[in-house]
Specification:
Blueprint (H helix, E strand, L loop, with lengths): L4 H12 L9 E4 L6 H14 L2 E3 L7 H11 L3 E4 L1 H8 L12 E4 L6 H11 L3 E6 L6 E4 L12 E2 L4 E5 L12 E6 L11 H7 E2 L2 E10 L5 E6 L4 E3 L2 E3 L1 H9 L4 E10 L5 E9 L9 H12 L8 E4 L13 H13 L2
Parallel strand pairs: 1-2, 1-3, 3-4, 4-5, 16-17
Antiparallel strand pairs: 5-6, 6-7, 8-9, 9-11, 10-11, 11-12, 13-14, 15-16
């Protein structure tokens, strides 16, 4: 449940303060209005300054997205990491020169995707994190303060803290549960008092996300609480392993989940979608494992690599990891 004024708060603290929106802007949000992210991008942000919103009712295929951009010339372009990856996987010359900034949310944007998009189109993607409970962004990269792979810096007007399982502040650089506080956070869940009590505590919103913070204040996503893997007694962030895999020239996108081996011990299991034109050679899985080993500690290396044509996602573009966990378990049991 949100108050009407929460839209004003988000428009002021993010759209105006970070994106510097004005009436000359043309907003194109591929995520639609039923998504809290899309509601701001294509709804109350342009309304806040009398700007233009370009609404696309069709499917978010790369061909459609490119066509809308070339025809309607948006200045601000909003998508999700999977969408940017699909655009990069589409060959051709496309005119995105009208776009002054792109924005990504929904899931963490891997640094390699940011760099590839910047190299191909000359456009910065500002990764950020928000939630339906907070209505829109609360941590974001800025046009002149971008750290690829991070979610950015805390927005002015918000407070944040990283706590351990005992509700104590974690040491600098350690992974903790992210709590945020601000004027746009929801008041409660409709007719769900128990969920309200566990999620909203003394004005603080428990996001359910695991994060670290570096010395410069940038926040780095480590995964959802139930996505973290404990391998050999050590915590492994699936996001870190995925970022290493996506840096390989053959990989378009991937997802890493935990799966038990023959001894009942949890190990990383990777699902990989290859770039167009890349063959699934007999040695490719091993090459990818070795590639991760060269970048990360040995215990973070995926023990299994399964190639897929696509990965399961929600209508808003978020990875459905629970389905992949079930698939990994089934694959292991059948071997």
């Amino acid at each position: 449940m949100h108050l009407q004024h929460d839209m004003v708060v988000c428009a002021e603290l993010y759209a105006k303060a970070v994106l510097k929106i004005d009436e000359r802007d043309r907003f194109f949000s591929v995520p639609k209005l039923f998504f809290a992210y899309g509601l701001g991008n294509g709804g109350y942000f342009p309304l806040a300054v009398g700007a233009t919103s370009i609404l696309w009712p069709g499917p978010p295929t790369p061909a459609d997205v490119y066509a809308v951009i070339e025809r309607h010339r948006p200045t601000l372009f909003f998508f999700v990491p999977t969408g940017f990856g699909m655009m990069l996987a589409t060959a051709g010359a496309f005119d995105l020169s009208s776009v002054r900034l792109a924005v990504s949310a929904g899931e963490a944007l891997p640094a390699p995707l940011y760099r590839r998009f910047k190299e191909r189109f000359g456009i910065d993607i500002l990764d950020a994190i928000g939630s339906t409970e907070a209505l829109h962004m609360f941590i974001a990269n800025r046009p002149h303060a971008i750290r690829a792979g991070s979610s950015g810096l805390l927005l002015d007007g918000y407070d944040a803290m990283l706590l351990d399982e005992h509700k104590k502040a974690v040491a600098p650089g350690d992974v903790g549960d992210l709590y945020i506080r601000g004027e746009a956070t929801c008041r409660e869940y409709w007719n769900q008092p128990e969920k309200t009590a566990t999620t909203i505590q003394d004005g603080w919103l428990r996001t359910g996300d695991k994060y670290t913070q570096d010395a410069d204040g940038f926040y780095w996503y480590a995964g959802r609480g139930d996505d973290m893997l404990k391998v050999g007694g050590l915590w492994v962030s699936p996001v870190e392993v995925e970022a290493a895999l996506v840096a390989h020239e053959a990989v378009q996108e991937c997802a890493v989940v935990g799966c038990e081996d023959a001894d009942g011990l949890t190990k990383p299991y990777a699902f990989v979608v290859l770039r167009a034109g890349v063959d699934r050679t007999p040695t490719l899985a091993g090459d990818l494992q070795q590639f991760v080993r060269s970048k990360l500690a040995e215990y973070k290396r995926p023990r299994w690599v399964e190639f897929r044509d696509e990965l399961p996602k929600t209508a808003t573009g978020k990875m459905q990891r629970f389905k992949l966990r079930e698939d990994a378990r089934s694959a292991r049991e059948s071997r």
